[in-house]
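Agenda item 2: BES complex prediction
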Amino acid sequence: MKFLLAALLMSASVAAHAAASDPIVSGRDYHSYAEPTAFRVKHLDLDLQTSFEEKRLSGVADLTIARLDPNATKLVLDTRDLTIRRIWWIRGATDLVPLRFTLGVRDPMLGSPLTIDVPAQDVATELKIRISYQTRPEASGLQWVAAAQTANKTDPFLFTQSQAIHARSWIPLQDSPQVRMTYSATIHAPPGMRAVMSAQPIGNNSGELEPSGVYRFEMPQAIPSYLIALGVGKLEFRATGPRTGVFAESALVEAAAKEFAETEQMIQASEKLFGPYRWGRYDLLILPPSFPFGGMENPRLSFITPTVIAGDRSMTALIAHELAHSWSGNLVTNATWRDLWLNEGFTVFLQGRIMRAVYGDRREAMEETLDLATLQKEIATLPPSDQVLAIDLRGRDPDDVFTQVPYIKGALFISWLASRFGDEQIDKFLHDYFDKFAFQSISTEDFRAYLEANLLPLKPDAVKSTELDEWMKAPGLPKSAVLPHSDAFERVDALRKDWLAGKIAATELPGKDWTTHEWVHFLDALISKLPTAKLEELDAAFALTAAGNSEIAFSWLRIAIRNDYQPAYPRLESYLTHIGRRRLIKPLYEELMKTPAGAARARAIYAQARANYHPIATASLDGIVLKDARR
Ligand code: BES
Ligand code: ZN
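Presented output:
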C-alpha cells in the first residue's frame, strides 16, 4: 500500500530520476510523463506535410482518448522539441473547441510534458482532441538524409526511428510501450516521392507512385508508439512473394529483392512454430546507410540497413530477427524499457529457430557462437548492475544502455529452459504465450508468473527456483548456461593457429571458401598485436582492406586500428563517413580513441562524418570522440 501511494505521488520526472536505492515498481514506465491510469490514447490520426527544405513535419494529430479516471481533467502527453501551435477538443463531428495547454520544462532525456486541460467527465468518457504542431530539424526520431547520402544520390530521404523514446519527437502522444493504439495517417510527400508506413496503405498498395504525393494508411491492430514509423524517399517496390516485398531506391531494389528472397520461407517456418503471422503483409524498407541500427521491426514494414546486402545472403539473420519481432515484441510487448529482454531475448531465440529451419544447423551454430563471443566480451566491460536481464534504467537514457545482455543472455535463458524441458515443450509454451498475451504489454514479473504457472509444473524437478533467480536477477552468465558450439569454427581456430605460428602461409588458408561467419570468427579471435608483415600478408592474400562485406570490413578495420596498419586508413575513413550503423562504427571510434594519434584521426574523421550521422548515433559518439577535444 505504501509503495502504491509513493508511486502515485511521485511525478514522472521525479520518478525518472529516482535514486537507485528506491525499489523499482514493476511495470511502471520511468521514461514517460504520460499517466496511462488516468487516460489512454486509443487511436491516432495523423495528417502531415513533409518539407525537406525545412526539415520539418507539420500538420495535425487527432487523438481519441479513453478516460479511465472519471475525475481526470489534465491530460499529459510526451513531446520532445515539438512546436505546439494549437489544441482543440473535437466536439461531435466537426465542432472545434480551443483547449488550454502548457508545455513543461524540457528534460534532456524525456523531453517536455504537454499538459492539456480537457473537459470534465460529464461531458464525455471518450475524448477527441486535435493538436496542430510541427517538428524541429533536430528531432531525435527523424533523419533528413541529403540526396548525396542516398543510394541513387538524386533525391533526399526521410525516415523515422521511434524506439525507444523518440516517437515523442515527431508525434505528441503517450510515448510508452504499455499504451497501444490503432492509427491512420495522411502523408503529403513531395511529388515523385513515395511515403511508406508501418501500416496498411489505403488504395494503391505499393503499385504506381501517387501523382498527388498524398498517401493514406491505416493500422487496424493496436500497437505501441515505438512502432509507429514513416519513410519518404524515391522508392520502388519489388515483390518477393505473395505477401512479401522490398521498398528501396532503384539502385538497390533488385539486389535487395535477391538478397531477401527467402523472407516468405522464414514466415512459414515461424508460423509453424509460433502461430499465425497476424499482420497481413511483411515488407522491408531499405534505408540509407546512415540508419543507426541493423534493423527495426516496424510492423508490416521492417526498416533495414543496406549494409546487410552482401550479395550472398550471409546476413539474412537480421531479417529473421526483425520478422520474429512480429511475435515477440509487436504482439507481446515489453511494458517498460527495463523489460526490453522480453522483446529482444525472445526474438534472438526465435531468430535462431527460424534460421535453423531455413538454413540448417551448421550456419545457426556459427551465428550463435559469434553472438556468444560478443556477449562475453561485452560483459567483461559492464558493471554488474548492467549484466542483469532486466536492467534498472531509471534516470538513464535507454539509448545509452544498449547492450547485448537483453539480447544474447535473454536468448540463452530461453535456450537453457529448452535444454531442461525439451525443444518441443518450449516451442509449445512460446506459442501459447504469444496467444495468451497477444496485443498486450507485460513486465518481467508478469512473465515469471506465467512461466511458473504454465511451464514449470510440466516437469516439477527440471529447474530449481534458485536457478531461475540466477538467470532473472544475477549478473553475468549462470554456470548452467548451455553454450553454443561450432565445428566449423574449430577448423578455423586450428588454421589461425597454424598461420600465426608460421606453419602455413596466408595463401594456404581456405579463405576463398569461407562464409562471412568464418571470416569474422577468424579475424575477431586474432591476438590483439600482430606484426605489420603478418597483416600485409593476409591483406595481400584476401584483399581485406578492400572487402565490400560490411562485417568483414568492420572486423578487419578494428584489427588495423589496433596495429596502426597504415594501408587501411583510407578505407577506414571511407567506411566511417559512409556508414552510420552504430554497431559498426562505435567500436571503431572507441578503438581509435585508445591512442593520442588515433584520437586525432577519430576527431578528424568525425568532423567530416558527423553531419551525416543519425541523432541517435551522434548522441553516443559525441561522448566518445569529443570527450577531451577541448584540451
Ligand atoms: N528493436 C531493435 C532495435 C532497437 C532496440 C532500437 C532498442 C532501439 C532500442 C531491433 O530489432 C534490433 O534488435 N536490431 C539489431 C538486429 C540484430 C540483433 C540482428 C540491430 O540493429 O543490430
Ligand atoms: Zn530486435
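Discussion summary: The two ends are 52 Å apart (CA to CA).
Owner for follow-up: CH.
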